[in-house]
Design brief:
The complex is a heterotrimer of chains A (103), B (209) and C (270). The termini of chain B are far apart. Chain B has helices spanning 5-17, 22-36, 52-56, 65-76, 91-99, 141-144, 156-167, 189-200, 205-208; one strand spanning 37-38. In chain B, helix 7 crosses helix 8. Chain B is built from 9 helices and 1 strand, in the order ααβααααααα. In chain C, the strands form 3 sheets. In chain C, strands 6-5-8 form a 3-stranded mixed sheet. In chain C, strands 1-2 form a two-stranded antiparallel sheet. The chains are: A mainly beta (103), B mainly alpha (209), C mainly alpha (270).
Chain lengths: 103, 209, 270
């Protein structure tokens, strides 16, 4: 069971700025542990952002994305009180969705 | 030394009513050190036993000139000069050593060679921009001291001074922040020769750039 | 949320300072890296530890199945806000001066029934050390923007300041290093890492006021205990016990010296 994301969504101009902090190890599959064995790859592969249930952004992530990744984007037309949800899927098939109300 | 009960009570009362004096604080510090550290890997608690050079330089204020001079003389006597008279080695190996900060920590293997850690504190070659400023810049070190040929007798004073600095920096500056690489067994004579080349060989990037 | 606003103010100040550079010629390498670090500060993964720590503070755990909501960090039982900037300090119930991590160990044992000595002996990043990481992040965050003011009213607190001072200048080991070797002067750096002068207040959010912190290079949250541990390792000293007297005394020295500095902990580091 993964740790919750920290999401902040604030109205800015005609939309909202969304900031997301995800908790994930994001192993590239290139690292070796202290014993010399390769640590297997385990990272987020897809991110979906939705505004009031409608998808506004999808992202395909690979090994270049950092551990505990931080993402920021703007959503046009988002208003105070709207619901923003962020979902991720990782290479093991684990999923997580967290929601926040636009401030 | 036996203290009578009455005197002991007086001491306790005195300690309660006044702040601890310097001697008591020294003692408290020693007690804290002993209780707080343990051996780990190659880093043993014996490392906390200070020699005189470490002790006199452990105050907030530097020692007097007289004490500093005495320490410097004692440290000078520890310098081991190259047995075969060869002071200068390979600057390419020297540059690798200067970049290498490994060795002597509890996470290092016993017997593994150490690096010189030099770029942590010094600017050395002009090309390397990731340098520290704890020690002075060594850019053009040999050139600025007129070393055109390390074999020239005219350069021998600079050569000896530099070897001495690398072997035991406290011989020329009692409270130098620089480790005593030869004296403390951090670097071997062969490694020091290569650092000498980095600093003094006219073809080294230190002098040639 | 005043903590969040204060944090943003410090960040904005940092970014502002980074951008207010002379236009002539190139930025120095060190300035460029500092600007990059300031930009990194948004979305600090330390927030993940803060959230976890807040949950652990309230959760019933351990053999006693109790929460930490009665834990006294110096401002009364359960008061986390403002406690961080007054630690280390003397505690009457244990009869000693304690830093945050030492005090959390006391509470984990006394309130929840955990074995403090076993947790202290656990390597960093494992087992209940992870609990401490989260709690340290949470408690520090509750003092974000507040200024350090360690109490010195008790004789033990004053004694620890003096012991800490002696330890700060104590040269030993094969490199002859003391804390002062790196942290005793203004304007120095190791490679491209600026070194705060810890013999005085080095400024808001710097030095003692910047730890605990999230270290990007290893993706780990380091408390002051871990930071001191790695300092001693690099000084070529032997191993300092977790929350041992030396570590607490040094915390008193650094904390008293940085009086007035605003804390930004948990911050973000390379």
């Amino acid at each position: 069971m993964s740790d919750p994301m920290r999401i902040r969504a604030q109205v800015q101009g005609s939309g909202a700025v969304v900031r997301v902090l995800m908790s994930h190890e994001m192993e590239t599959g290139l690292r070796k542990d202290a014993a010399g064995a390769t640590v297997p790859a385990w990272h987020i592969t897809e991110v979906v952002a939705a505004l009031n249930g409608k998808t506004v952004m999808t992202a395909q992530w690979g090994t270049a994305i950092a551990k505990n990744p931080f993402t920021q984007f703007t959503v046009k037309g988002a208003k105070s009180g709207d619901k923003i949800s962020i979902s991720w899927t990782d290479s093991r098939g684990d999923k997580r969705t967290d929601e926040v109300v636009v401030a | 030394m036996k203290i009578s009960t009455l005197a002991a009570c007086a001491l306790v009362l005195a300690a309660c009513s006044t702040a601890p004096g310097p001697q008591q604080l020294e003692q408290a510090t020693e007690v804290a050190l002993k209780a707080s550290f343990r051996d780990q890997g190659i880093a043993k608690v014996e490392r906390l036993n200070q020699d005189e050079a470490q002790k006199v330089c452990s105050e907030e204020t530097p020692p007097s000139d007289a004490v500093a001079t005495r320490i410097e003389a004692a440290q000078l006597a520890t310098i081991q000069w190259p047995a075969d008279g060869v002071y200068v080695g390979d600057w390419r190996e020297g540059e690798k050593l200067a970049q290498n900060g490994r060795g002597m920590t509890w996470s290092d293997a016993a017997g593994a060679p150490s690096g010189g850690n030099c770029y942590n504190c010094h600017r050395i070659s002009k090309a390397e921009i990731s340098f520290g400023t704890i020690g002075p810049s060594l850019v053009q070190y040999g050139k600025m001291r007129g070393v055109a040929d390390v074999a020239d007798p005219a350069s021998s004073a600079v050569i000896k001074y530099t070897w001495g600095k690398l072997w035991n920096s406290k011989a020329t500056n009692a409270c130098s922040g620089m480790p005593r690489f030869g004296h403390q067994g951090v670097l071997s004579p062969a490694q020091i020769r290569d650092l000498m080349a980095l600093l003094l060989d006219p073809k080294s990037p230190v002098n040639a750039q | 949320m005043s903590c969040g606003l204060a944090w943003r103010a410090v960040l904005a100040f940092g970014l502002g300072a980074a951008f207010a550079l002379p236009v002539l010629g190139q930025k120095s390498t060190a300035d460029g890296i500092n600007q990059y670090r300031a930009l990194l500060a948004d979305g600090n993964p330390a927030e993940l530890w803060e959230a976890k720590g807040e949950a652990l503070w309230k959760q019933k755990r351990g053999p006693n199945n109790a929460s930490l909501e009665a834990c006294d960090l110096g401002k009364g039982p359960g008061v986390a806000k403002g406690a961080f900037v007054e630690l280390p300090r003397f505690f009457a119930d244990t009869g000693k001066v304690q830093d945050l991590e030492s005090r959390l160990l006391s509470c984990l044992q006394t309130l929840q029934g955990f074995d403090a000595a076993a947790i202290a002996a656990t390597p960093f990043g494992r087992g209940e050390q992870l609990t401490l990481e989260a709690l340290v992040a949470f408690v520090a965050a509750e003092s974000r923007g507040l200024r350090f003011k360690l109490p010195q009213g008790h004789a033990e607190e004053r004694k620890m300041l003096e012991v800490g001072r002696r330890l700060f200048f104590f040269r030993a080991g094969p490199y002859d290093f003391s804390c002062a070797s790196c942290h005793g002067e203004d304007g120095k750096r190791i490679r491209l890492q600026d070194l705060p002068n810890l013999t005085k207040n080095p400024g808001d959010g710097i030095g003692f006021a910047a730890w605990p912190a999230y270290r990007v290079s290893s993706g780990e949250l380091w408390g002051m205990q871990r930071r001191l541990n790695d300092c001693f390792r690099q000084q070529r000293f032997p191993y300092p016990g977790y929350a041992s007297e030396v570590t607490v005394a040094l915390g008193v020295y650094m904390g008293v010296k940085s009086e007035g500095a605003a804390s930004i902990a948990p911050s973000i580091k390379r």
